[in-house]
Design brief:
The protein is an alpha/beta fold and 419 residues long. The chain has helices spanning 2-9, 13-29, 38-50, 113-128, 151-157, 160-164, 217-235, 273-294, 315-329, 347-352, 366-374, 378-381, 397-413; strands at 54-59, 63-70, 75-81, 136-143, 169-179, 183-185, 188-191, 193-202, 206-207, 242-251, 257-258, 261-270, 301-308, 311-313, 333-335, 356-364. The strands form four sheets. It has an eight-stranded mixed β-sheet, with helices on both faces. The protein has a four-stranded antiparallel β-sheet with strand order 10-12-8-13, with helices on one face. Helix 1 crosses helix 13, helix 3 (38-50) packs parallel to helix 4 (113-128) and helix 4 (113-128) packs across helix 13 (397-413). The chain is elongated.
Length: 419
């Protein structure tokens, strides 16, 4: 019955598609950085009002919440993120972003959040205009600042929990670099937890011709980077997964000046709290040990930032969604491989005390993806999220994402479903 009701609702997809594709092109051409999504939020709020939603703006500053109350029944929360990235677009699309902010920073929807927003608006519109097919409450959350890991928390801290009340299930999706038209689910740990760290190493500066008078932080930083490569290889169990990347080393200003400090930027990805704490503790131990071995005159400094929670999909919720996806999408539905990317979506259901699931939809032209797959060149030929060339095909990506949200919501909201 849930899938039958979803099919009835989705008969209106042709009419939604009329505005949806142009709406997407407009969002893509006008991206906004985290906490700056004011134009996007305004467009979202207007479209929600057109659909007949109760609309709340300014939740977490630039966040928007749309609510459709349709009698007694379960409450389902669907979420989309709205922000873009400081990337200069190189897709060559007719609707490519050419936007830069005042300081010259380029801005691009390089992660597909414009897809997420457009699909959720389409699903909300379809459900709102087909109220006879379902009962309960639909909550649509349009979240800012996913890329800085604090947008979900900002919405929670500004009163999201009181605003939406009790929620039975929370769900979200992400467009990913696999074949468009496909959907993938996965129970359990799905997206990694992430921790970024800034480490400041202190040395003693001197003339480049007098290294004996210095404690060289460049050499110290090099030793730290090399030693950190042993953490995953030698301190994480073979059956566990972790990624440790040193993304930046900054030290010095001139070839003949030994600087007095160096700064490292690290990123860690893990799938359980034990591995997470093991890796973070190992980093600090190694850095302190290398500083002592180098005769560093001051203790190193550690600062954690951009911390993302683990996305750990509820088994029962995910199974229920996987079942309706299999019925609706047939062989286009399958398993989502575990992703090393990270998300802050789970901060919302955690605050609500609500089980959740998070799935993926494909965004790459199916023929292009199959050709790359057959040639064993997916990694080389298919642009990934955050790439300047990442460009989901408009269709069937928007249709699939809109359908997936509606079908998943109806697994709870259809009149014969139980909450």
């Amino acid at each position: 019955m849930p899938v039958g009701a979803a099919r009835a609702i989705l008969r209106g997809l042709d009419a939604v598609r009329v505005w949806q594709e142009d709406f997407y092109r407009d969002l893509h051409a006008h991206p906004e950085l985290p906490h700056q999504e004011r134009r996007t939020a305004g467009l979202v709020a207007a479209r929600l009002r057109d659909a007949g939603c109760e609309v709340h703006e300014g939740v977490g500053d630039t966040g928007v919440v749309g609510i459709v109350r349709n009698g007694a029944g379960p409450s389902v929360l669907l979420r989309a993120d709205m922000d873009a990235l400081p990337v200069r677009e190189e897709t060559g699309l007719s609707y490519a972003s050419t936007r830069t902010i005042d300081d010259g920073t380029p801005v691009m929807h390089a992660c597909g959040h414009d897809v997420h927003v457009t699909c959720l608006l389409g699903s909300v519109t379809l459900l709102a205009q087909s109220s006879e097919q379902w009962s309960g409450t639909l909550v649509a959350v349009f979240q800012p600042a996913e890329e800085t890991a604090d947008g979900a928390r900002a919405m929670v801290e500004s009163g999201l929990v009181d605003l939406v009340g009790q929620v039975d299930v929370a769900m979200a999706q992400h467009v990913l670099p696999f074949a468009a038209g496909r959907v993938g689910t996965r129970p359990g740990p799905t997206l990694s937890a992430a921790d970024s760290m800034r480490i400041t190493l202190h040395g003693r500066g001197a003339h480049g011709s007098m290294p004996q008078a210095a404690v060289d932080p460049v050499v110290l930083a090099a030793s730290v980077v090399v030693r950190l490569q042993t953490v995953v290889a030698r301190e994480v169990a073979p059956g566990d997964t972790a990624v440790l990347t040193v993304g930046s080393i900054q030290a010095g200003t001139k070839s003949n000046v030994i600087p007095d400090h160096a700064v490292l930027l690290l990123n860690v990805r893990t799938y359980d709290e034990h591995t997470r704490s093991t890796v973070l503790a190992a980093i600090e131990r190694i850095v302190r040990g290398e500083c002592e071995a180098s005769g560093s005159p001051k203790e190193p400094e550690f600062a954690l930032f951009d911390r993302y929670p683990l996305t750990d999909n509820d088994t029962d919720v995910t199974g229920r969604v996987a079942d309706v996806f299999a019925e609706f999408f047939g062989d286009r539905a399958g398993e989502l491989p575990q992703q090393s990317a990270s998300e802050d979506f789970s901060d919302i259901p955690h605050a609500l005390g609500t089980p959740y699931t998070y799935w993926g939809i494909g965004g790459i032209d199916a023929d292009t993806f199959r050709a790359a797959e057959k040639a064993g060149r997916v990694a080389q030929d298919i642009p990934v999220n955050h790439s300047a060339s990442f460009a989901p095909v408009i269709q069937p990506t928007l249709d699939t994402g809109t359908q997936a949200l509606a079908v998943a919501a109806m697994a709870w909201l259809a009149r014969s479903s139980t909450g």
